[in-house]
Amino acid sequence: MENKRVMSGIQPTGDIHIGNYLGAIRQWVELTRNHQCFFVIVDYHAITIDYDTTTFQDSILKAAMVNIACGLEPGTCLLFVQSHVPEHMELNWVFASCTMVGRLTNMTQFKEKAQQHETNVNAGLLNYPILQAADILIYKASLVPVGEDQLQHLELARDIARRFNRKFGEIFPEPEACGKSVRVMGLDGENKMSKSLGNHLGVLETPEEIWKKLAPAKTDVQRVRRADPGRPWMCNIYTYHEFFTPEDRRQYCYDQCQEAGIGCVDCKRILHEHLCAALAPIQGRYRELEQHPDTVRDFLNDSARQAREIAQQTMAEVRHKMGLR
Ligand code: SF4
């Protein structure tokens, strides 16, 4: 698995929560150590739903800053904006001619989005997975870090690659999923962490904001009063400890919870201390980047230039095979 090309998309929003960080970004940073990684801020995907044109560029820049602050630093990967490499769209059109409409209408995510945005079920939403296939295959990436909800789209990308290769000649690898997807539950303890559900802890939130959300968060339902012994293995707060709290303090919480030696507020305060300590360097780096937005733009532009060289080579091969010269 050494030195393969890895490709992943990033939504153009800076509102990243710890579910995004633990579930995806941390793994991406890990992948940059041994692989050639391409991370693309997917502005063309984002316009398939209603959005604010006046703040769009700020959101893209903020998304870049947060991801750099989390570890996608210059020199470790390419980080760029999708629309800065127009070959994505060209390959998207080519792939559209290799994709059956019935396959797209059966996509689970299309059905969900069509329900969520029932007044705006546009063709872009339907074609979304084709553009995703183009995002991956324009770089001939063979590894894609995806969560379970994206596996169906990755399977379509593999089918498109296979169909193209069979019809016009071998160009594309069949990309595979990589990385272990981590599902982080929200503060309600019932649903996956999500900004739209409001059960999230933002990576850029202050210690005060985090405590305001953490204090009332769901714990083991059996622990109604302070004197009730708890079951840390049934408690969502304890799963956060597993990510952020050093082992000795975590074990202390685990043991004391079962003996009612500490209350949930004490336990949450310990988590709060370690969670904020883990977020502090990310927030510090983010503030530095905010002071120097031009260095972020330079990184995005330089990455786009390098990515585009590869994308142009792929499109030259595609046009040649398809008789489009
Ligand atoms: Fe959960 Fe901690 Fe309360 Fe135990 S003491 S139920 S682990 S919050």
What is the gist of this entry?
With 325 residues, the protein is mainly alpha-helical. It is built from 13 helices and five strands. The chain is 54% helix and 7% strand.
Structure description:
The structure is a single chain. The protein is mainly alpha-helical. The chain folds into two domains: 210 residues, Rossmann fold, CATH 3.40.50; 80 residues, Tyrosyl-Transfer RNA Synthetase (Orthogonal Bundle). The strands form two sheets. A three-stranded parallel β-sheet has the order 1-2-3, with helices on both faces. It has a two-stranded parallel ribbon with strand order 4-5. Helix 7 crosses helix 8 and helix 10 crosses helix 12. The longest helix is centred in the C-terminal third of the chain and has 30 residues. Iron/sulfur cluster binds next to helix 10, helix 11 and helix 12.
Keywords:
single chain; mainly alpha; two-stranded parallel sheet; 13 helices; 5 strands; elongated; binds iron/sulfur cluster
Helix content, binned percent: 40-55%
CATH topology of the largest domain, by name, is Rossmann fold
Structural class: mainly alpha
* Tally of separate domains: 2
Task: Please outline the major beta sheet.
Answer: 3 strands, parallel
Rg over CA atoms, rounded to whole Å, is 22 Å
Overall CATH class of the largest domain = Alpha Beta
Spatial ordering of strands, largest sheet: 1-2-3
* Quaternary structure classification: single chain
Helix count from the secondary structure assignment: 13
Order of helices and strands: EHEHHEHHHHEHEHHHHH
- Quote the distance from N terminus to C terminus: 36 Å
